Amino acid sequence: MTSQIYSQKKFVPTPPEKGSFPLDHEGLCKKQFLLYASCLRKNAQDTSQCRQDARNYLACRMDNNLMEKTEWSKLGFHDQSTKSDKKAPEVQKQ
């Protein structure tokens, strides 16, 4: 009522662009998140240096139904969309 008295505009919340997604209460993707956060700290918040960690974190969230499965190109991974999906991780020989 007081907001109408002082001619303030009413706040109308808008939903997120991609929709909401559940929080990771069980910690299913905590390891991937910590690796990504650690990479960001090491690289002074330069996200371009941590793209693979970000991709691993998002893949974990999609695999555990914590977010909608989306094409990598729609998530900003245009350069890795086809290469990484088919490529198996390399094992170093000693």
TrEMBL record:
An example Gene Ontology CC term for this record: mitochondrial intermembrane space
Record bears the keyword Cytoplasm: yes
Keyword list, A-Z: Cytoplasm, Disulfide bond
Biological processes, Gene Ontology terms: mitochondrial respiratory chain complex IV assembly
Main location: cytoplasm
A Pfam short name: CHCH
InterPro entries in UniProt: CHCH, COX19
Domain CHCH: 29-62
Region: Disordered, residue numbers: 74-94
Cellular compartments annotated: Cytoplasm
Protein family: Belongs to the COX19 family.
The protein's name in its UniProt record: CHCH domain-containing protein
Species in which this protein is naturally found: Drosophila erecta (Fruit fly)
